[in-house]
Specification:
By secondary structure, the chain is α/β, with parallel strands linked by helices. It has two domains: 2-108 and 241-269, Rossmann fold; 112-238, 3-Layer(aba) Sandwich (Rossmann fold), CATH 3.40.50. The chain contains twelve helices and twelve strands. The protein has helices at residues 3-11, 27-38, 55-61, 74-80, 88-91, 110-117, 134-145, 160-164, 201-209, 224-231, 240-254, 261-272; strands at 13-19, 42-48, 64-69, 83-84, 96-100, 103-107, 126-130, 149-154, 169-172, 183-186, 213-216, 235-237. Strand 7 (126-130), helix 7 and strand 8 (149-154) form a beta-alpha-beta unit. Helix 6 (110-117) crosses helix 7, helix 6 (110-117) packs across helix 11 and helix 11 (240-254) packs across helix 12. The radius of gyration is 19 Å and the shape is globular. The mean pLDDT is 95. The structure holds NADPH dihydro-nicotinamide-adenine-dinucleotide phosphate. NADPH dihydro-nicotinamide-adenine-dinucleotide phosphate binds next to helix 6, helix 7 and helix 11.
Length: 273
């Protein structure tokens, strides 16, 4: 590391996002734009993490004040932090780490980011979550915490045990009986790099006939899930706002919540245009 680079690292606040793969991440664009607009002397970069054991070392080596964590390290980060706050305890996954006095504090802003993204749908009484991975946990628990009755439907049986053990009505395609919901959320990666639906088309079409709203956590493309939502006249949106709000919430945690979240989100949004 050159002397100049090392001094620069010490004089400003440094942040990053860890993941593998990481090339696609737009988090640096969002955070750096907010630093620029809000006049903060800080830097945010992306780091390809090949081994979770190295995460703590990177914090010290790069003098990081905080970081975001993405696929596949959210669960492992939960175990690495010295203390966990808020809904991250239930989700058992961390997407934001704040470092203070050499201690790592873990949070999950995906959950609240999702909740803020669905605000515009208005009053939701019940919901069906498709998928049972890390994102499904964030979505299910925040809906539940906000009094929205939530059921879960997943392709395979294995991952639904986590939810059943926490008294969530969770089903796989084979043992599911049709019900009525206000909101259907796709938290699977079906449609991300392929043209798959998250569940069989006949089943989804039946569910959609009785629903009002659809939400896909995938952003930046019109997925088959969103197309089917529209065909069934559901009001729907993709995961771009969820991405924006989780980033704005993480940003504020990095700075002890001293900034106005709306202003952070507005600043970040200019980087998404
Ligand atoms: P996981 O790998 O933890 O979970 C994937 C889930 O998708 C599993 O339940 C799996 O089912 C299901 N699945 C995968 N492929 C299919 C398919 N072809 N048909 C049906 N089900 C399928 O992923 P994550 O929860 O970490 O991420 C999921 C998505 O959420 C990603 O696309 C990610 O980009 C997005 N995301 C968006 C965010 C945002 O801010 N907008 C934030 C975080 C994530 P099974 O158990 O049967 O394998």
């Amino acid at each position: 590391m050159s002397g100049f680079f090392f001094e620069a690292l010490l004089s400003m606040k440094n942040f990053c996002v860890f993941g593998n793969p990481i090339e696609h991440s737009i988090s640096p664009k969002l955070h750096n734009k907010a630093f620029e607009i809000l006049g903060i002397d800080a830097n945010y970069t992306k780091i390809l993490l090949k081994n979770a054991d190295e995460l703590k070392k990177f914090f010290a080596r790069l003098n990081l004040s905080g970081a975001n964590i993405t696929i596949p390290y959210k669960e492992v980060s939960f175990g690495i932090c010295d203390e966990i706050f808020g809904i991250a305890k239930k989700i058992e996954a961390v997407n934001t780490i704040v470092r203070k006095n050499d201690k790592l504090f873990g949070f999950n802003t995906d959950a609240l980011g999702f909740l803020k993204a669905i605000e515009e749908f208005g009053n939701i009484k019940n919901a069906l979550v498709l998928g049972a991975g890390g994102t499904a946990k964030a979505v299910v628990f925040i809906l539940q915490e906000n009094g929205i009755y939530t059921e879960l439907l997943n392709r395979s049986k294995e991952r639904i045990e986590f939810f059943k053990n926490r008294k969530i009505a969770a089903f796989s395609w084979n043992d599911y009986n049709l019900k009525e919901y206000d909101l259907i959320i796709n938290t699977t990666s079906a449609g991300l790099k392929d043209e798959n639906l998250p569940a069989p088309k006949e089943l989804l079409s039946q569910i959609f006939k009785k629903a009002k709203f659809g939400f896909d956590v995938i952003y930046g493309k019109k997925t088959p899930f969103l197309t089917l939502c529209e065909e069934n006249m559901l009001t729907c949106k993709d995961g771009a706002d969820m991405l924006l709000y989780q980033a704005a919430l993480a940003f504020n945690l990095f700075f002890d919540n001293v900034y106005d979240e709306t202003k952070i989100a507005e600043a970040m949004k200019t980087a998404m245009l």
